[in-house]
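We emphasize that the prediction below concerns an isolated chain of 380 residues; any contacts that depend on oligomerization or on bound cofactors are therefore not represented. The input was used exactly as deposited, without trimming of termini.
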Amino acid sequence: MALKCLVVCADDSTNQVLRGILEALGIKVEVCPTAVEACARFADSRYDSVILDCDRDSGATEVLRLMRSSPRNSTSLAIAIVDSQSNVHHMFSLGINFVLYKPISEERAWSSLRAARTLMQRERRRSRRVAVHAKVALDYANVENVPATLIDLSEEGSAVQSENKLPPDCRVYFQFALPGHTSLIRLSGEMVWQDSTGRVGMRFVNVPTTSRRVLRNWLTTNAPATVPAAPQVPRPPEKIVKTSPAATPQPDNALARLRSSPGNRRTQSRHACRLGVDVYRLGVAVPNRCSLTDISSGGCYIETTAPFPAGTRVEIVVRAQDMKLRVQGVVQSVHTGFGMGVQLVLKTAENHEHVQSLIRLLAESHHTTEVGPFGDPWSR
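Result of the prediction step, given as a token string:
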């Protein structure tokens, strides 16, 4: 069954941009210009998402209220179209999941709606989410022990509340103890959506057998007949400083880039990839076949079930198309059973140029090809 979106907006140019993006994402679109007409549709139709033009706040608020009270659409994704003067915090308190800023930029809207589509698909999952409140520690790339709060959970994924902005498409390693249990659950996942309130949606990728057993037993015991909305984690009040739109990056663009934060010790931009690598301990001729999942001019992340101890000096050999990169590094962070973060040691100008050449190659091929295990490319 195709995903379906209702767009409640009277502006033809905005509707044209949104329709083009949504249909390109495989989402069926219905457009209605008035709040009254939109409210009438909730009784008979089910929508995976509703996009509301919130310029006329009273009408949009009524649409949102009726949507949330509708048996068919109570869990639909809500996306607000706002201007730079809108009270975004108030929008999220009303139940908005995503925000698009006027004038609608096709680039920013594409990024946000693609993330929204992923969430729509996840909401059709077979495993229902259970609301939970538990502390969790997140590790990603070279950032370790970032505190966050688990707010819902299923066998397939979870949502967490984090003070840190996570890089797009990153692999996350996290551990937590469920209420009533002392044993830690350790697993890896990947980010599928993120909003401006700090909520992050995760899809589980690798769950060890022991952790899966504890997770499944807890969900069986605690799953209610009707799953309530995930609780909102209290956040300290923020002073809102109004600035001109040109001077401030729009929040929906945060899905496309990582903003620096105190918890992020990296100073270089990471480039996500999937490349086969051979990793050697210095002085040992036996290669360890692993996967490179991101790289920058200063470091990289290597997935392996048997990571080396922190401080181990290694040599990394990467092959991509006609390029062969050989560099040395030092293991900085270790996630047992999952992988390790490596700081690159670039001793010569040639080493720097080779790394930059690989980064340029990844950037150029990002939208056209994907590199398979051990360097074999295939079309997306």
